[in-house]
Amino acid sequence: MWNFWYTNQSPSKNCTHAYLSPFPLIRDEHNSTSYDSAIIYRGFWTVLMLLGVLTIVMASFFIICAAPFASHILYKAGGGFFILAGVLFSLVVVMYVIWVQAMADLEDYTNMKKMDCPDFAVYVRYGWSFMLAPIGVFFALLAGMLFLLVGRAIYLHSD
After folding, report:
1. How do residues 55-113 score in pLDDT, each as one tens digit?
2. Cα 146 from Cα 87, distance rounded (Å)
3. Whole-model pTM?
4. Are 158 and 79 in contact (CB under 8 A)?
5. 92 and 48 in contact (C-beta within 8 Å)?
6. Mean pLDDT along residues 3-25
7. Could you tell me if residue 69 is left (phi over 0), alpha (psi between -120 and 50 degrees) or otherwise beta?
């Protein structure tokens, strides 16, 4: 038991937290917004994300107000906002993929880190939230099309 808990321990790990920025990085400077291109790219990404969230909230508000099947216009407006939110979120996902896959220079980053730690390795992995993002885009587009269809059905049956 003594060997298992105390003497048979693995060597200590040296974990290095890294934030991979696709923009040029000066050694020992950790300011990722020191370049105009970083600020512009991150600004567009943030604005698209916030517009997507705001559009989902507006679409939900229109659908809640149209809940008793009273106004086909509100259903159509809500459906249009859901479709717009799906398009905005798909742009956010595409921008993130471009950021990680095309713009990040992994070789230079790895070579820079190997100066300090010779056995340094980079692993690029997408998390579960990134895997769920396209599913959310699909459901936003599906909800938009269904609410447009509901609005059309209410319009046709109201006469």
Report:
1. 999 999 999 988 787 788 999 999 999 999 999 999 999 988 887 777 666 777 778 77
2. 16
3. 0.71
4. no
5. yes
6. 58
7. left
Residues 130 and 96 sit within 8 Å (Cβ to Cβ): yes
Residue 96, both tokens: 């993130």
Would you state the pLDDT for residue 42? 78
Rounded distance between C-alpha atoms, residue 79 and residue 87, angstroms: 13
CA distances (Å), origin 76, targets 93, 117, 124: 26, 58, 41
Please, is 67 exposed, middle or buried when counting C-beta atoms within 10 Å of its C-beta (0-12, 13-18, 19+)? Answer: exposed
Helices marked H in 66-105 — which ranges?
A: 72-97
pLDDT of 28-47, one tens digit each? 555 555 556 667 777 888 89
Query: If 0-12 CB within 10 Å is exposed, 13-18 middle and 19+ buried, where does residue 133 land?
Result: middle
- Amino acid letter at 60? S
Q: How many other C-beta atoms can be found within 10 angstroms of the C-beta atom of residue 45? A: 16
